[in-house]
Every structure is written in C-alpha cells, then in structure tokens.
Write a structure and sequence with these properties.
The chain is α/β, with parallel strands linked by helices. It folds into two domains: 216 residues, 3-Layer(aba) Sandwich (Carbamate kinase), CATH 3.40.1160.10; 117 residues, VC0802-like (2-Layer Sandwich), CATH 3.30.2130. 37% of the residues lie in helices and 23% in strands. It contains twelve helices and 16 strands. Strands 3-4-2-1-7-9-10-8 form an eight-stranded mixed β-sheet, sandwiched between helices. It has a six-stranded antiparallel β-sheet with strand order 12-13-11-14-16-15, with helices on one face. The longest helix has 19 residues. It is globular and about 75 Å long. Bound molecules: aspartic acid and magnesium ion. Aspartic acid binds next to loops. The site of magnesium ion (MG) has 5 residues, from loops.
Amino acid sequence: MQIFKFGGASVKDAEGVRNVARIIDSFGGSNVLVVVSAMGKSTNALERILEAAYHQSPELPAYLQAFKSYHDEILADLFPEEHLFGRIDVQNLYLELECAIDNANLRHDYDFFYDQIIAFGELISTRIVSAYLLFTGLRNQWIDSRNFILTDDRYRDAKVMWNETEVVVNNRLRPLSEKNLVIAQGFIGKGPNGENTTLGRKGSDYTAAIYAHLLGAESVTIWKDVPGVMNADPKKFEQPVLLDQLSYEDAIELAYYGASVIHPKTIQPLQAAGIPLFVRSFTNPTLPGTRVDQSSGQLQQACLIHKSNQALLQFSTRNLTFIAENQLMQLFTLFNAHKIRLNLMQNAATHFTCVIDYNENRLNALRLDLANLEMDLSVTVGLDMISVYQPSEGIESRLPAAEKWVMKQQTDRSTHYVIRP
Ligand code: ASP
Ligand code: MG
C-alpha cells in the first residue's frame, strides 16, 4: 500500500481537486491511503476567525461567511447544482463549526478551543475530495482521523500515543485500507477525553508518516507545488537546485531548521520502518521528484533555509551577576510550560540568548512568569533566520549584507544567521 499526502495548495480550488483525482486515478485508485489537509489557506482563515472570536470583533460573521463561501464556490464548480454530493456533509460541518465557536471560551483555554475549531478545515476538505472522487467513479472510504490518531492533551502540539494508536489502526483501519481507497484528514487527532487535538501547524505530513509506519506502507509520497526538495526555497533564493536523493538524516536536519517542504516530525517514523519518502510535484506528476531513504549518501550540496517571524530574546541577570544553572533550569521550565521552542541558543557570563518563532500570546505569558526570576528580558522581533546546511566556499555572498546580521552561530553541520530583513 502507498500513502499519498496532498497539502492545502494542491486542493486550493476546484481545478486542484480535479488534478488530485487525476493523480489518484493514474495509480489505479486503490491500495492507496490519501491524507488531505485543509484547502488553500483555510487553516489561516480559521485562525483569523478564532482571533475575531477572542476579541469579540464585529468582523466575526463576515470572516465566517468568507470561509463558507470559499468552500461553497469549490463545491459549485465541482458538482452540478442538482447533485447533493458532498453538500449535505459540508453544510452540517458549517453548523458544527458555528456551534463550536459559540461554545468556545477562548479566554479560559485558548489552545484547547483552538483545536476544537481548527480541525474543521480538514474535516471539510476531505468531505469535498471524497465526494468528488466518488462523483468521478472512484469509490473510496472517507475516514475520520480522530478515530485513529490518539494523542495526549498538549493542544496545538499534541503527542501521539503510539501504543493506543497502533491498536486501533491494526484492528479497524488495516482491514479497511486493504480493500478500499481511503481518504483521511491530516493534522487532527483525538485527545484523552474524546476532544479534538492537532499535531502542530503543517502537521499533515506527519499524519501520513504515522499511517505509513503503522500500516507498513511501501512508500509515502508528499505531493507539492515544487518539483521536490530543493537546496534553497525558490521563493527566497535564486537558482535553487533539485536534490534528487536525500538520506533520512539530512532530511531531518533540513526540516528541523525550517525547510518548509517537509514537516520536521515526518522522517523519524519512516526511518524507523525503512519506508522511503518521495516529494513530488502535483503540477508535473510524471517527474520523479526527490527520494528520501536510508541508502542515499551524505549530501554534498550547501542548502539555504529561510525562516521568517523570528524573535531574539536576551535574558540578563541583574547587577552583573553570573547566570546560574538554577536560573537556566527555571527558564527552560518556563519555555516548556509555554510551548516555546528554541531554534537557537547561546549563553554568556551574564546573559542567555535564544531565537524562537514569534508568538505574541506565548511571549506575554512568559513575561508574566518571568517577574518571579531575577532576570531582565529584552526582545527583538521581526527577524529572519537563514540556516546554511553544509556550508561551502563563498556561500555568505548569497546572504543579505553582514550589517544586517544580528547573530551568527555554528551547530554541527550548519551555520545560522539571524538577520534583520
Ligand atoms: N492545515 C494545517 C495547516 O495549514 C495542516 C497542514 O497543512 O498540514 O497547518
Ligand atoms: Mg494546511
């Protein structure tokens, strides 16, 4: 069996959905489990809806209407008016979404309600894709990934409970997937109390890897709007080169530092089971793309990875005292509690510096707790991080001018530059 993953860009409009159906059909339309994420930028649209609900903004109804109209237009384009294919399920999901928003108490527990609401992007997209496949004659089984991907309650970044997940996948999904073309949501799961959880933004690749690992798939293919894994993001750097082969180790490093083409958690479950990963173009599905596996040798090429929206935090002790281990311990406890992930860190005699993905709410919560520690914090926002994996001669000439650098750091096989854009 093969696992396919189609991201938001591949199903951003009706033509995208038709293209996805053609690709699935070209593989015979069976013995495939297809993971689909929310259409286009609809996860961002749901985040905007949440923010509007949180701030009790008068824009909320308009944002909701735009979200529904976007999907309604795709439905109208895909199906003749007299066909109810997909429409009944989607209408019902709109209603459920609206009730979930009405019932949310975002001020009480933002992350919990975030997951209850954000999951609707995937639920709706998979209903539409599944209905369209059926409409074109491709029989398929829509499944709810919340029945199979069982997680803890770390909302917005839930951890998979592998043992429990394995049991339901073996008992319930395996027999289904052996006989049917299966359509499943990426990104979403179920928490200990039956509530929605999500695996972290862009987590659908990870869902594909989890299913592949547990079902012993022969391969995973992530269909993207780029020809495969490039040595630099084509939207940020000139003359990127396609990497036709990559080892799991190199892929993990590239994804970890922010190469957005593969979600960082995707590789490990595949590596553990020796399942190859293909990254291929949905606009040019005959091209071979990139193959990630264990036999590929070490990458020789320099890779440039760009991450925007970074914040540099500098913690300093008061009265020039040295940073003590117990202060670092307390800081790390706070990072963990507020789900702040450190992309880079450095320590000096009287201060500790780190670079994180900027998130206003989490940073504010950290600031509040910091009042108890004998430390001051200065924050610089709006930075970019460029990581060069396998640096080579002359590579710095491809980066922004040195006057813009705020921090440079070497780790293992990479050099990282934090830059004012
Ligand atoms: N729809 C989710 C997101 O945009 C998950 C995914 O795309 O993989 O973050
Ligand atoms: Mg998405």
